[in-house]
Amino acid sequence: MTQLSPQASPHPSLYPAAGAASLRLLGASACALLLAACSSPPLTPTRPAATGQAPVMACDALAARLNLAATRVVSAQRVEAGQLKLPGITQPLPEHCVVKGLMNERTGPVDGKPYAIGFEMRLPTAWNGRFFYQANGGLDGFQTPAYGDILGGGPASNGLLKGFAVLSSDAGHAFDRSSPIGGATFGQDPQARLDYGYNAVAQLTPMAKALIHTYYGKRPDTSYLVGSSNGGRHGFVTASRLPRDYDGILVSTPGYRLPLAAVAQVWGAQQFASIAQPNPATGRPDLRTAFTPADMALVSRSILARCDALDGLADGMVADLQACQAAFRVDRDIPVCAAGVATGTCLSQAQKDVLGRVLAGPKDKAGAAVYAGLPADPGIAGNDWAAWKFVNSVGPRDAIALGFVFVTPPASPAVLTGQGNTLIDYALKFNLDTDLPKLTATSGLYRASAMSFMTPPDPTMREFVAQGGKMIVFHGTADPVFSALDTIAWHDAFRRTHGAAAERHARLFLVPGMNHSRGGPATDQMDLVDALVAWVERGQAPEAVVARARGPGSAVPNPEVPASWSPARTRLLCPYPQVPRYTGRGDTESATSFACAAR
What we know:
This protein is of the alpha/beta class. Helix content is about 30%, strand content about 15%.
């Protein structure tokens, strides 16, 4: 089995924000086509345009013809055109060959369980000559169908429909339903940790391109990696570790410092627990009682009162995020209850203190930031924000990943199976002084720390840039897990490193109100895959993107779109540090009435 040695790297720093650059104004009327990206005039492309190719063999012959080391094709089956139709997508899937297989099958030396990198590929008969690596999210462990998710909320298309050959994988482990730590069981296996961190992508990429060559008689002309959340982290890591393998990378909500974000989550849970009521059934704090939906709605209204009009229009959205961070203050702008009990029109002083600490983010004993704070954004009242802060932080997401994947050595399952121990106990007892160093530790068989196998060795991606790579990043400003401020800090450092060349290789788009990957009071539906292809293959850099709300009547409605909005409201997303501003005329529900401008 081929194994890659982890590349040790220093802790990626929390980059201080840089001053806003003065960028040219973009007339929004050029963006009239909904869900399309506005692009600059064509430049000399760094890659030739991809050309399609028909298969050179039958789908069911592929298993016998593929001869790759440590790779076993389990099945190859043709799917007829129109046989599959996905919710929210009008067009049925085209004819394609679906291939399932396993790489690097082995038995784990610690737990004696079977491991392999499981994968699925979907190869369209009408192939466009392009490869699409679908980087999945969370703790992985599932072979999500390789349809080619184009990200955002309620996507109206996917990579397979566009003609890409699409790959999906479980990142080197299968979810263990029999274990008390479920999806984190693999954290006990040293190699599975590396596979999850970066090695599955490194192993699967050449395999997938060889499989494409076998089926179509040629290798892909261009290659793209697309992912959100942990999949976004894969995008950052891949650009750093495999800079020559992908021409374009599209990421949303990039948790590129995921272990530290998990620390921030459990630290935040500790803050909420300090004011929460006990759960009568368990005796543990019920974090949902710390802030009710009415409390969070008040916070949202208070942010809007200070920040809504900073972008030139009071429309229930905060498009100028940076200006809002300077304008809004928890201590001043949220009413405090005289009687000390929250009523939905005020917060207790204890609630205000906790909220202020959570938005500021965790600090170590020296006062240095452990992870970025969270932006003040009206999407803080979103359902997803509450789910991540009050449930996932002490449940099967952050606490379990931290305990069994991100600390070295991993915690014993006895933490959860011993009398009186639960995930919330682990989260509430996590100590920044004594436990944070475990993220950079190595021990025995665990020769790589989480901060080395989970994060990009070079966050500024120098070699990816030198190879002409293009990256598009978008991030919801109300993301409760991976802070948009952390992504802004990364982008500021990228710009400082590459100077004038930075915007030729990476662009960041902030999505006001959007929660984790989608949802919230936001225009969260967009197609940036087409924008990335245009940039890579035609040299057309995205100068703005049009995003749509998914109100009532949409194919996949977003219940958090406010009733005061048009159900199909559109807005410009502008490359940071530009912000969309109302031009002063035209329909306030249409992106055509906005322009991207320097702050």
